[in-house]
Amino acid sequence: MDCIIREWRIEDKVDLAKVLNNKHILDNLRDGLPYPYTVDDAEEYIIAMLSADKTKTFAFAITLNDVVIGSIGAFRCDNIHFRTAEMGYYIGEEQWGKGYGTSAVTWVCNYLFEHTDIIRIFAEPFAYNIASCRILEKSGFQFEGTLHSNAVKNGQVIDMKMYALVKV
Can you give the residue ranges of the N-acetyltransferase domain (predicted)? Predict the structure, then answer.
């Protein structure tokens, strides 16, 4: 069964809070998300995504049987990089390893290349997040290099990897 990628709905807040109220997921994301993650936090995020500039923010719910199992977004860069977007995503832990991440990344990249002027999409997973790196590779992204000592997560200096997909 394939996941469905769709726009957010306010009523997704309960499902989103369940997915994100998980330290294993937060440990693989950038800082800034509260823990515990509440329904109010989820509602605030969904409202922000629904009201964001649709030419710069492309944010979607990843669903299975119309239940949110994750989130994916691409965010247009600016200045000389205005035709480049950074992608981020996560899948609920119960759904890890089932191909939903690859499906979502592939769908969003195809959508962006077909419906916008974006020509390059990149992602910077933590180097230790092998599963995320694999999702990007299976979605056609090229590994461009390791960003050494590029972030501090949970008090540790860590490497990140740079992956990109270029419109052909």
Answer: 12-165
Q: Is 124 left (phi over 0), alpha (psi -120 to 50) or beta?
A: beta
Contact status, residue 24 vs residue 93, Cβ threshold 8 Å: yes
Q: Is residue 95 part of a domain?
A: yes
Q: Domain limits at 84? A: 4-122
For the whole model, what pTM was predicted?
A: 0.96
pLDDT of residue 19: 97
**16, 29, 75, 139 alpha-carbon torsion, rounded to 10°:** -90
Cα 166 to chain centroid distance, Å, stands at 17
Domain contains 142: no
Q: What is the count of structural domains for the chain?
A: 1
